[in-house]
Amino acid sequence: MAGNSLGQAMRSAIEASWYQDKPGWTQILAPLECLYRRVVATRFQRRIKQLNSPPVIVVGNISVGGTGKTPCVQALVLWLRSQGLRPGIISRGYGSQSEQFPLAVDADTDVTLSGDETKMLALACQCPVVIDPNRKQALLYITEHFDVDIVISDDGLQHYGLPRAIEIAVIDGKRGLGNKHCLPVGPLREPEQRLTQVDLVLQNGLSTTGEPLYNNAVVFTLTPVHWVNVKTGERLPLQSLTANGSLCAVAAIGNPQRFFDTLTALALPFDSTAFADHHQFTAQDFAEYGGRTVVMTEKDAVKCAAFAADNWWYLKVQANIPEPVFDELTNRLALRTNSSPFD
């Protein structure tokens, strides 16, 4: 646990410098930022537009850390299916230990092979999911082996070799773009002006001022739905979760504070522990909690199902995306493809 605490302290120090109005101590890395920007600009010029394949919607972000893009992917899959389409998902499969790619992920795939986010998507969306560090290869595989007529790339905004019809960037309403510097001085994977080049900017929650951070941003919310038992799948209404004393809340996501803030809004007493994003949980991580009730995110639950206790729960959330976003997607897809996928 000491190693994890040290690593978390270092990550917290870096994020504290990134997510403030001006660069902090990471300013000493400014020469590396200049080099990074040049590499990004060169690669961006080589990006590929939509090819003769099912249309691809890329859902990503331009900053490091969690913004809420994966719940957006889930919401898009549900909407596309409601329109009579057959969506599929491709992803890098971050954290995958598979030795062979592309890899089709389903409910039976070991999470060590799939990675946590893609296993969660496979369980939640019940649609074809394929991972490959080379997303273009994942696209070819999913179109050749599955009956899909539209593909969503979970992340991949900076994977310029992947053809795409639509680009959606997701930003965090509270943290925004931090000091607006690129790595390693700030949290940005691409310069801020990249937001003017995507088709849609979705903002996860309002900013501290109560306004969208950018003129072209559409605000959506993540809403808690119910509790799900990590071991059995039993569901409980939000207000029905009880415990003797405070809950043990753990999170290994890009922005753990968002999960903890949600628990606070639900008026639940809890002790919190944040782990590194994509942390591979083991039973030992929970040894100090004894028999206390543990709560976590859906992404973390897929890594804990094999050793979960009866009183471990994850919070199911959904992205509430305004209807005009879907209208805009319909129009843009019709313009970017030879024929509308909705015909």
By secondary-structure content and strand pairing, the structural class works out as alpha/beta
- CATH topology title of the largest domain: Rossmann fold
Assign the CATH class of the largest domain. Alpha Beta
Sheet-strand content, in percent, reads 15-25%
Straight-line distance between termini: 55 Å
Explain what this protein looks like in three dimensions.
- The chain has 343 residues and is an alpha/beta fold.
- It folds into 2 domains: 44-220 and 321-336, Rossmann fold, CATH 3.40.50; 223-319.
- The chain has helices at residues 2-18, 30-44, 69-82, 111-114, 116-125, 135-145, 256-265, 298-304, 323-336; strands spanning 56-60, 87-91, 103-105, 129-131, 150-154, 166-172, 200-204, 217-229, 235-236, 247-251, 270-274, 294-297, 312-320.
- Strand 10 (247-251), helix 7 (256-265) and strand 11 (270-274) form a beta-alpha-beta unit.
- This is Tetraacyldisaccharide 4'-kinase.
- Transfers the gamma-phosphate of ATP to the 4'-position of a tetraacyldisaccharide 1-phosphate intermediate (termed DS-1-P) to form tetraacyldisaccharide 1,4'-bis-phosphate (lipid IVA).
- Pathway: Glycolipid biosynthesis; lipid IV(A) biosynthesis; lipid IV(A) from (3R)-3-hydroxytetradecanoyl-[acyl-carrier-protein] and UDP-N-acetyl-alpha-D-glucosamine: step 6/6.
- It catalyses: a lipid A disaccharide + ATP = a lipid IVA + ADP + H(+).
Please provide a brief summary of the model.
Pathway: Glycolipid biosynthesis; lipid IV(A) biosynthesis; lipid IV(A) from (3R)-3-hydroxytetradecanoyl-[acyl-carrier-protein] and UDP-N-acetyl-alpha-D-glucosamine: step 6/6. The protein has about 350 residues and is an alpha/beta fold.
